[in-house]
Amino acid sequence: MRIYNTLTRQKEELTPLHEGEFRIYACGPTVYNYIHIGNALPLCVFDVLRRFLEYRGLRVNFVQNFTDVDDKIIRRANEEGVAFGEISERFIREYWTDAKGLNIRPATAHPKATENIGGILAMIETLIAKGHAYAVEGDVYFSPGTFAGYGKLSHQPLEDLEAGARIMVGEIKREPMDFALWKAAKPGEPAWDSPWGQGRPGWHIECSAMARQLLGETIDIHCGGQDLIFPHHENEIAQSECCNGVPFARYWMHNGYINVDNVKMSKSVGNFFTVREVAEKYGYEPIRFLLIASHYRSPVNYSVESVEQAKASLQRLYTCRNNLDFAAANAGAAASPEDAALLEKLAQRRAQFIAAMEEDLNTADALGAIFELVREINVQVLEAGASRAVCQGAAALLDELTGVLGLLYEHLEADQAPDAQAEALVAERTAARQAKDWARADAIRDQLKALGFTVEDTPQGAKLVRI
C-alpha cells in the first residue's frame, strides 16, 4: 500500500515499524459540543484506513483521544454554571451516539487528557531539563527555536512562521513562537498540582503524552484534518522529538476540508452543521457515504443535493443486496457448470477494489469497483436467474467489500419483512396473473399499495417492497 505522507510530500510505501502491526494515533474531538460534519470526516476516513489494514491481515493498535479540558469546555461550563467535567462527559456520551450512527468502530483506546496528567508532567519536566522549555510565573513554554526540525511538517521555516507571530498583551513568554505546555491556574478554572504550581496542560502536549503512553515513542501513522498540520501537529513533533530523542511519527495522513455549497465550512460564515442535525433529516449512513465517496485528501462538498445523491447511491446498494437474498431464497439449488466461472468473474472486482485502496486509500475508485460489481450482479445474476450458490456467493462478496468501507450496516425500513396479509395478496396476485386475470392482478396491486407495499416482478418471482 502507498500513502501520501504530509511530512515528505510524496507517496510512500506503507510499512509497519513492528512486524504485522500498525500503531496509529488519530486526533479526536474537543468535547464541548456535538461533533460537526468536519469532525466526522477524519472519523470516517481513518476508520476506513483501519478497517482496510485489518482486512489485509494486519493488526492495528488505534488510539483516538478525547480533549476533555480546554478553553471552550471551560467557557461553556461557566456559561451553564456547571463543572467542566459535566460538559465533557455529556458530549463524550453524545459523541458515542453519533459515532455508532456513523458506524465508527471504537478505537483500541480512547484516552482522556485529564486521565494522563502524570505522563504530561513527566514530558514537561524532561523538556525543561533538556533546555527546550522554561517555566515563568507558573506557566511553562516550549521554545521552537531549540528544535532544528521545527516547520518540517508544514514545510515552513521557523523564520517565516515567526514573521506573522506576536506576543499578545498579558503573555509572558520569551519569543512569539513559544507555546504553552502548562498554564498556571486562573480563578474558576480546573487545575492540577505540578512542580510549577497549580495549573492545567496545554493542548499540544496532551496528544504527545497520550501517544507515547499508549503507542510508544515512535508511532507508525499520525492522522487528522489538514487544519491540524500547523500548529498542532507541528508542535507535537517538536515536543515529542525533543523529549524522546527519536522520530515521533513515520507517516502523517491528513484529510481535506469540508465545503458547504462550495464554501469552506466555518462557524464565522454560519454554514456550520452538526452530524446530529443532518442525521435527523437524512439518517447517518448517507453522511458516512458522502464523506468517503471522495478521495480523502480532496475537499468534500456538503449540500442538500450531495447528501440526497449519497442516499440514492446507498439505496442502489441496498436494493442489490436484498434482491440477492430474495433470489437465493427462491432460486433452484442445482448448481450449473458455469457457476464457478461467473463467481470468478465477479471476484475480479475484489482485486480492483484492493488496488484502489492500496493507492493512497482511494475510496472513490473503490466505490467505483463496488458499483461495477452491482451492475454485473444485476445483469448476470439477478436478471439471468443464477443458481442459489451464485446468489449467495455474490452476496458474500458485496458484504465483504462494503464492510471494508463500513457501509450497508443499516436495515432499511423498506427491507423489513412484510406482514402476512401482504404475503397472501401477493400469492393471490400471482395466481391471477397465471390465469391471465389482469384486472384482478391490478386490483391486488392497488390493495398492496394501500397497505404500504409495491410489488416487483423478478426472474425469481414477485418481491414485496415497502413503500
Please give a structural write-up.
This protein has helices at 37-55, 71-80, 84-101, 117-129, 158-163, 203-215, 229-244, 275-282, 285-292, 304-330, 339-358, 363-383, 388-404, 420-434, 438-450, and strands spanning 2-5, 10-13, 21-26, 59-64, 133-136, 139-142, 179-184, 199-201, 219-225, 249-255, 258-260, 263-264, 300-302, 453-458, 461-466. With 467 residues, the protein is α/β, with parallel strands linked by helices. The strands form five sheets. A four-stranded parallel beta sheet has the order 4-3-9-10, sandwiched between helices. Strands 5-6-7-8 form a four-stranded antiparallel beta sheet. A three-stranded mixed beta sheet has the order 12-11-13.
Superfamily (CATH H level) name of the domain at 18-115 and 256-302: HUPs
Largest sheet: 4 strands, parallel
Helix and strand element order: EEEHEHHHEEHEEHEHEEEHHEHHHHHHEE
Based on the structure given, which CATH architecture of the domain at 18-115 and 256-302 is correct?
Answer: 3-Layer(aba) Sandwich
Total beta strand runs? 15
**N/C terminus separation:** 43 Å
Going by helix content, strand content and strand pairing, the class is alpha/beta
Alpha plus pi helix count: 15
In percent terms, what proportion of residues is strand? 15-25%
